[in-house]
Amino acid sequence: MKIFAYGIRDDEKPSLEEWKAANPEVEVDYTQDLLTPETAKLAEGADSAVVYQQLDYTRETLTALANVGVTNLSLRNVGTDNIDFDAAREFSFNISNVPVYSPNAIAEHSMIQLSRLLRRTKALDAKIAKHDLRWAPTIGREMRMQTVGVIGTGHIGRVAINILKGFGAKVIAYDKFPNAELQAEGLYVDTLDELYAQADAISLYVPGVPENHHLINADAISKMKDGVVIMNAARGNLMDIDAVIDGLNSGKISDFGMDVYENEVGLFNEDWSDKEFPDPKIADLIARENVLVTPHTAFYTTKAVLEMVHQSFDAAVAFAKGETPAIAVKY
Ligand code: COI
Q1: How many angstroms separate the alpha carbon of residue 288 from the centre of ligand 1?
Q2: Active site includes 264?
Q3: Which end of the chain is more exposed for a tag (fewer CB within 10 A), N or C?
Q4: 313 and 203 part of one domain
Q5: What residues form DSSP beta bridges with 216?
Q6: Where in this chain does the record put each D-isomer specific 2-hydroxyacid dehydrogenase NAD-binding domain (predicted)?
Q7: Cis status, amide bond into 37, omega within 30 of 0
């Protein structure tokens, strides 16, 4: 059995070597190149391809892969929003993702950032770097004094809720598909509007599916409390960033944390040292004292990377054997 993997990064190699040692019967070949119509032929002769990229899996790309006989595709990440599912259906692709690699990685990061926003650490660090060790005016807010609205209570949202409870925050939540345990605790509000009206801080954990596109837009922001704090480590397209910038300018939004950005492909995970950002909005956001930008690193922990590699390769083997892994994507 042969598996061909695309986009393998150096930090994934130890996990890949570990997996290979545990599965010596599987031949593994890989490239650091991403899967494109041009690179698809590298997988020729493989039973399954393992991939991770933010670049779209277009009809052209999937056609090229199917043309070299590979229709088993195992993603090393959770998001499937960049797959052309119509094309995948046409070629009967078997697709898997890794829906639960480490909810803690993302939940922790988002809660660290939310805490940093509340304690104004960016402003404080900047002052300290300039040898200004005075307290005022950089006064913080305590988590336990906040009502935090959690939008999306899947695996990640639920870990975030537990962290928030540890801080003593009052948590309210919204999800179209409520979790029975949280429901029994009475954590849910019935509508997003209720959440917007009550929350001092809002953190998002919903997928970037079309119905959630620009969920946080001017209308939603207008329904939020004055001085609301917003944290998004879920998907960039959840935010109408122009509306967020307007909210920051007017003071309606007091602080904003983002680990994801609608136009992040080609921008995040690139080195812009000594270069101008190609996107003036990201330059503007990064320059603000009350905005924390991280380049889609919430997921990026040793545990998460190991799970992404191991689970995706396990699924690739299962597909190659004609089995359906538990993490097969139903589409
Ligand atoms: C995902 O798993 O879809 C993520 O958002 C993390 C990605 C950058 C690997």
Answers
A1: 26
A2: yes
A3: C
A4: no
A5: 239
A6: 114-298
A7: no
Supply the ipTM of this predicted assembly.
Answer: 0.93
Rg, Å, the chain Cα set: 21
CA of 305 to the centre of ligand 1 (A): 10
Q: 247-297 pLDDT, tens per residue? A: 999 999 999 999 999 999 999 999 999 999 999 999 999 999 999 999 999
Distance 52 CA to ligand 1 centre (A): 8
Phi, psi at residue 255, to the nearest 5°?
-145, 150
The letter for the amino acid at 177 is: F
Pocket of ligand 1 (CB under 6 A): 52, 77-79, 296, 299
Comparison of pLDDT for 209 and 2, the residue scoring more: 2
239 half-sphere exposure, CB direction, 13 A CA radius: 27
- Out of 158, 264, 307, 310, the active site residue is 264
- CATH number where 254 lies: 3.40.50.720
Q: Which domain holds residue 175?
A: 104-293
- Checking DSSP bridges between strand 2-5 and strand 27-30, what pairing results, if any? parallel
Report pLDDT for 48: 98
Mean pLDDT of 29-53: 98
